[in-house]
Amino acid sequence: MSIGPGWYLGLSTVLFAIGAIGVLVRRNVLIMFMCVELMLNAANLAFVTFARTLHDIGGQVLVFFVLVVAAAEVVVGLGIVVAIFRRRASANADDLHLMKG
Amino acid sequence: MLPLTYLIILLPLVGFGILVAAGRRLGDPAAGWLATVAVAASFAVSVGVYLSLLGVNAPVRSYSQNLWTWIPVDRLQVHAGLYVDPLSMTMVLFITGISSLIHLYSIGYMKGDKDFPKFFLYMNLFVASMLILVLGSNMLVTFVGWEGVGTCSYWLVSFWFTRDSAASAGKKAFVYNRIGDVGFLLAIFLVWSKVHTLDYQAIFANIDKIGSGNITAICLLLLVGVMGKSAQIPLFPWLADAMEGPTPVSALIHAATMVTAGVYLLCRVSPLLHASPSAELTIAIVGAATAFVAATIACAQQDIKKVLAYSTVSQLGYMFLAIGCGAYTAAIFLMVAHAFFKGLLFLGAGSVIHGLHDEQDLKRMGNLRAYLPITFITFAIGWLCIAAVPPLSGFWAKGDILDNAWAAHPALWVVGIVTAALTAYYMSRLTGLAFFGKDRWAGADDGPTTDAAHAHHADGHSAEPHESPWIMTVPLWILSFFAAVAGVMAISGSRFSLANWVDPVFGSTLFHDNLSSSAEWTLAIVDGVVAVLFVLIGLRLWSTRSERPALEASFLRGAWYINELYDAVFGRPSERLAAFCADVVDPKIIDGAVNGVAGAFRGSGSLLRRTQTGYVRNYLVGIMFGAVVILGFMLTRMWWG
Question: Which of A2, A87, B55, B321 has an alpha carbon 20 to 30 Å from A72's alpha carbon atom?
Fold first, then answer.
């Protein structure tokens, strides 16, 4: 019994849902950040799955783009998180509501 | 010389240009001399053009000069064209001639004024505008001159604008003239819509295409226009206030030239008037009524210039009466004679005002003939001219008009002869008060003076009245000569005959009174007797006493309360309307709309700001919700699309 693409897509959906729920319900900036990464990688998994199924190299190319962008995002994002942490000694997202209208 | 016609306008315009650029540097009196030379040169060219025009022997002597195409728009082709014929030539000659003399006089009169160059700048521009007005070959060029003289009149009336009265008199003149201008403009529009040309000769050639109703409408609209410019009922009160200007301005603009522009315009469109008897009758009635009303007002005025101003209105009324009768030559005759004698009278009055250190109140004059002999002699000639004492020019000119009125509308002749009697009376009253009787000017130190200008004389109040310098008396002598002898233009067949010269212009439109010679003699004797009688009455009454309240009814002193009437009918309702706009329309409606828009945005903003909580999770829910909606939309499209 071979493992078909449905499994991979199912895993991808589960990972994406975990990431999305994590971003929505957690307050810690670092955890939210990790959840975003989880969502990105869930999408990557779906891309790779489709690339294999459809024999289209485009999906894999797109994965590389996502990885590069994610790496850049991590750099900037972690920099911001560190800067916030230095000022307030807390990583709670709800403390950061200065942009309230 | 005919091709040089454009120089007549160009020379004063060049003088104006130089004064704009370098007037302050030229200063007093060089700026005045420059302006005088510019106008005198224009007069010299006019004489040359006149002599050349005498050599042209067409049925109607005329010369057209097309300078350039001014407005080339489809069917609206307007040329900057000049048209010289005996009518416009007569105007040009007396405009430039009298302007030269008044410019010369002004050098003396305005001496020491701080705005001396500016005065001559306006005067030159005025002369150029007036010449454009009379030389224009189509209605639009005439209109340019028309507005030019109106603007210069405004500037010159309010020349001493630091005085409130002068500033508001200028505004008043401007507003009254604008009312008239609306009529003139509408007449131009109507003419164009009917014949698609504005050129006078082309309009007259196509007069059949206009239709009689439209001709009457055009004539009445033009009448509205000339009512404003020539101060006829109901638009006459501005001319009395215009006396706030310097006296040479009153002489040139508000007696000799600008106010006669309306008479000129009506003469210019004589074929139109001829085609509309009802318009002619209206003009005659307006003229006769104005002549009478203004003469009664002049009988009770105390300011020497106001008497002359109302007298001007009255004489203009005579000219309108003549035009209404179709006697255009008679109107022009009085216009020319009036330009001489009224210019002379104003300059004489200016000399009196100058000699008395800015005193204008007749009741504070008296016995001036002993102190101002030259002014007295020349003024007396003007006085007897306007009073129509034979054999001076006024007698011939006014007699000509009255003869025509007798033949055309006998009822208006009665008004005319009564006005002639009033004219002789009030001018004698003026002369009696100013030049005869006891010295009353000595007490002038106690009361306030009416003319506060002339910084030059501010120090000399205790001095005796003094005769004016030669530069002011020479124009008086010249004008009094022409005023006295202008009557030769009435001698038919002579080389000076105005009728020989101008009649061909009007041709069949001219009214001929066809009076028998016995009727003419009778009318002339009546005119002469009335004039002499009322001159004697006026002089007898007013050279002995200066106060006769019974003869100076306050109704007449207040100019029939016409200003108060206009104030009540137009002025105060307008003020209330303005107050309503300021207190209700502006704060409630206009500000309400502006503030309402701002309030709507502020309200919606304060509602929408609630969505900006500042919590990242709320935004994320929004993003997620949006993603779900888009995804759901795409899925439904896939399944049911």
Answer: A87
